[in-house]
Amino acid sequence: MRIKYLLQIVLMGAALNGAAQSAKSNLVPAAYTMSRAPLRQNPYVELPLGAIRPQGWLREMLVRQKNGATGNLDKLYPLVMNQRNGWLGGDGDQWERGPYWIDGLLPLAYILNDKELIAKVKPWVEWSIKSQQPDGYFGPSKDYSSEPGLQRNNSRDWWPKMVMLKILKQYYSATGDKRVITLMTNYFKYQLKELPQKPLDHWSFWAKYREGDNLQVVYWLYNITGDKYLLDLADLLHKQGFDFTNAFLNTDMLASAGSIHGVNLAQGMKEPIIYYQQHPEAQYVDATKKGYADLRKFNGMAHGLYGGDEALHGNNPTQGSELCSAVEMMFTLESTLEITGDVNYADQLEKIAFNALPTQTTPDYMNRQYFQQANQVMLTRQPHNFDVNHAGTDVCYGLLTGYPCCTSNMHQGWPKFVQNLWYATADKGIAALVYSPSEVSASVADGVPVTFKEETSYPFDETIKFTLSTGKKTKTVTFPFHLRIPAWCKNAVIKVNGQELQQVTGNQIVKINREWKSGDVLELTLPMHIFKNTWYENSASVERGPIVYALKMGEETKKVINDKDPIAYGSSYYEVRPTTPWNYGLVEVPNNKLNETYKVEKAATVALFPWTLANSPVTIKAKAKRIPQWQLYNEMAGPVPYSIIYNEGMENQKEEEVTLVPYGCTQLRISQFPVVR
C-alpha cells in the first residue's frame, strides 16, 4: 500500500509539473506544484488526494460514512440522487444537491481507496466532463417544470458549477486525468467571455457570495498551466463577487441580525484571503482576521460556530447553527490555513471538527440535524426562535428534516479534514498542522519519499507520536518538520528519539530542521488544562484542549413516522427528550483554581468510536446548583440567566456534583452555563 502511494506522488509530480517552472528554479520538491508568479507563494501546499490515510477513530468516522448515508445516498434519497439527476444527464434535480454529495463522496472514496465508492463516483465525473459544449459550457443546460422535492430550474446558474469544479480538482489530484485540465481551461474561457453579460448573480444570488470557490480553482489551474487569461478571470470574479473585504473592515454586517445567510458567510469568508494570493495587500489579511473576531464577538458560540438559522442571528445559545455551515466553515479554514500558515485558523478548525461536527450526525451516519444548539435540551417537532422554520423539524434527527441541502452537503466534512492534516511546505519539508491519528506519504528535500505514522488519541489525549519511515536506499535525509503548537497550550514538549529537544509556548509553528533517518520518533506533548470562555449573557463554557465540555444528560429517543409531509421532511425522524434535569448553573470558581476544583477522569482506552455518552473518553466532575426559574420555553431551554447569579432566592438550592462530557458526545446538553456565586 505504501509503495502504491509513493508511486502515485511521483506520477502526480510529473503530471503537475509538466507545464510548471522547474523544481530546481523553485527550490521545491519535484512532486508538488508551487505558486507561479505573480501569485504569492503560500507556505503550505496540499498533498495529493490519497496521500493521507486516517487511522484509529478518524478512519472509523470515514468507514461509518461509507456504510451510512455518504455511501448510500443514491438509495436513501433516490428522488434527487438517482439516474434522473441532471448531473447524470437526466430531467430531475439540476442544481446543487448532486454535486454537493459527490464533493464529499469522491474524497471519501479515494482516501479509503474503495473500489465500490470510486465506481459510484465515476458516472458523475464522466458525465460532467463529456457534457462540455463547443463554447466551453459544461453541466445541465435545460430547465424543467416544477416537481415536488426537486430543483429543476436555474440549470445554467454559475453556482452549482463551482461545486463541480471543486470535485474535478480533487479528481485530478487523485488520478492525474488530463481531461480535467482541458475542461477547466475551456470553461474558464467561457466564463471570461460570458460573465460581463451574465454576471454571477444573473440566475440567482448564491454564486455572488460563493465566488471564492470558483476563484480558488482558477488559481489552482493557473499554477499548472500558466495561462495568463486566468488572472484576468480572477480579477473579474472578485469584482463581481460580494465584497467581503469591505463588509468586514467597514460595515456592521457581522453585528447585524439577518444581514447575511449563514452558509454564504461560511463559504465566502475565505474569498479575501484567496484573492490575496494575486494581490498580497494587508487589507485582505486584516479583513479576514477582523471578520473572524467580529463573528465570534457578535454571533459566536462555544462549539466554534455561530448563530445562523438561516440568516445571521446573534449569539444566544438556543439559536441554531446549520450543518452546512459547519462543513463549509471547515473547508474555508482549511483553505485559509494553507495560504496564511496562521495557527489561529487551525485552532478554529479543530474546535468545529471536534465539537460541532460529530454531534450533528447520528453515530451510524444515517441521520442529521439541520440546526444544532449550543444549549439543546429537547429535540421535538416544534417551531423555534429561528430565522427560518421548516414545519418545526429543524432540530430533529432525520435524513431530510429541516432542509435537504445539508443531507447532500454534510459528507465533505471528515474527508476534507483528513486531507488537511498534513501539508508539503515551501521550504521542502512537511507540516503537521492539524492533529489526528493518520499516516502520510510525501516527498521532502529534493524529492525524497518519506512516510510518517501519527499515533495519538488526540483530541482526548495530550501526546502525539510521529514515526518516520524512508526507503531502504535512503540512509539519511535533511528537511524541516513543521509542528503547530495550539494557542490554548501553555508549554509544549518536543522529544526526538526519547530525548527532549525543546519546550515551547503555544500559538506558534515550530520548525525542526535536522538530519532524519528511518525509524526516528518525534513525540509532541500538548499538556491540556481546564479553562473557561465567556459568552452570551456572561455564560461560561468549560474547555480542555480543543474540546468543549457539556452537561451530561439522560436522553430518551423516539422514532416518529411522518405521514404528514414525507416528501419534504422524510418518512421518519427522531425526537430526543431529557430524562434528567438540565437547568444547572456552575458554581463560581476563580480561574487559578479551575484545575484544582474540576476533576478530570479519563477512560482506560479511547473507543474506536468515541462520540457517544457511553464511550466518552474524558469526563469532568464539577459543582453546580439547579436554577428553579430557568425552565423550558417553546420546547427548548429558556433564556439563559445572566451571570453572575447571586444566591438570593437560591438559599435552599443544594450544591450538586454534575458530570461534563465532550460536546461531540452529546445530543442534549448545556454547554454555555450560567455561573452561580
Overall geometry comes to: globular
Computed over alpha carbons, the radius of gyration is 25 Å
- What would the average pLDDT be, to the nearest integer? 94
Question: What share of the residues lie within helices?
Answer: 25-40%
Number of strands: 29
The number of helical segments is 22
Q: What would you call the quaternary organization?
A: single chain
- Computed structural class: alpha+beta
The main β sheet shows up as:
8 strands, mixed
Task: Measure the end-to-end span.
Answer: 59 Å
Estimate what percentage of residues fall within beta strands: 15-25%
What do these coordinates show?
- With 677 residues, the protein is α+β, with helices and mostly antiparallel strands.
- The chain contains 22 helices and 29 strands.
- The strands form 7 sheets. Strands 17, 18, 19, 22, 23, 24, 27 and 29 form an 8-stranded mixed beta sheet that branches. A 7-stranded antiparallel beta sheet has the order 2-9-10-11-16-13-14. A 5-stranded mixed beta sheet has the order 1-7-8-12-15.
- A hairpin with a 2-residue loop joins strand 13 and strand 14 (499-504).
- The longest helix is centred in the N-terminal third of the chain and has 18 residues, at 158-175.
- Mean pLDDT is 94; it is low at 1-30.
